[in-house]
Amino acid sequence: MSVVDTRQNVQGWIAGARAAVARERGTYGDLARGEQAISEVVDVLAVPQAAWAGLAARAIESNAFYHPAWARAVARHVKGQIGMRALLAWDSPAKRRLIGVMLVAPAWNCLRLPIPVFVGWYAYAPLTTPLLDRDQPDVAARTLVAAARKAGSHAVLLPAMAQDGPVAAALRRAVEPFVVAPRVFNAHERARLDATQSDDDAVAALGAKKLKELRRQRNRLADLGDVAFRIAAPGAEAEAALEQFLVLEAAGWKGAAGTALAAKEGDIAFMKEALPAMVRDGAAQIVTLVAGDKVVAAGVLLRNARRAYFFKIAYDETFAKMSPGVQLTLDITRAMCVDEAVDSVDSTAVANHPMIDHIWRDRQPIADLLLPVGGNAFAFKVLAGAIDARRVLRAAARSLYHRLRKLKG
Prior knowledge:
By secondary structure, this protein is an alpha+beta fold. It has helices spanning 3-25, 49-58, 68-77, 107-111, 137-150, 166-174, 199-204, 208-221, 236-251, 253-257, 265-280, 324-338, 356-359, 377-408; strands spanning 38-43, 85-90, 98-106, 117-120, 131-132, 155-162, 183-194, 227-231, 284-291, 294-304, 307-315, 344-346, 362-372. Strands 1, 2, 3, 4, 5, 6, 7, 8, 9, 10, 11, 12 and 13 form a 13-stranded mixed beta sheet that branches. It is globular and about 65 Å long.
């Protein structure tokens, strides 16, 4: 081999090493020329509220569960929310504009896995889509990935992440320099209402026979008195409606199972802090279905941008034969379709839900998205394997538990 060949080989090796370093850093240590964005990792309660609320209002993709009033109340009151952090992306060192927020906690806190992974916060948040500024989504996504890396994480797992929107696309572009493909777990679809259609068309999806039966059941409810759908006004009315919801939920099967919100003081405190404030700001609605002087069903919806989220429903099981929960859902369907400020409603339900899937026929693709924050393919594969193994084992344990319960029953 000649000296020239040797020098070229050495130069090629150096170039390759530099490229590897660039991939490892993802160009996030020194952002691309002209980008002044900076990252920061802080406690959730330390995020400036005005900056956060401003970003939530102009985010490229909606996520009402990352509204500051909601997330801060959870962090303050809900038991077990230890280690919650906010990964922040600012437009410049002067921090004039917040352009990205990703709420996370260590994998040990969320999954009980001792691995260097951040997990998107999902306590009372059935959607973990981060907030990205609509004018700078790619810069925001890259800066959030840089924040995770600087904090010592080797990957970020976002459970229940919307897969069909611009945020998922921006995050995938952000990790392209690592040449390590993201992993997807638990991909599924959940019911979503297309609120751009007429209310009659939306309800007609149930079919004439089912609608006839529901009208008959509603007439039976009317034996108690006039049946009315109500959206609580801000203030005392919203607070009373929230109390009615909590009482209904606690009196039903969730109360018997110990999973109702009223079963835990911290959960009650979170709801009573977050919801009245969000109703006042137009970011939430508490709805009830009343027959005579009796509340037979109640629900909670959150709102952000042009999307709503059907978070919770409760009904008086004494009137189960009249389908009060379905009746309330139909009223919500009509209300959302005639609301010109709403384009769609996320059911936030599990896949193949026996009730909502038959009413809302549009679908929201959801999955757990694991993103690399560095270029070490082997390490990422190990982390992905650990997360997948936990998922499989938990599914098997859940299946065995239900089989044993059936045998015991």
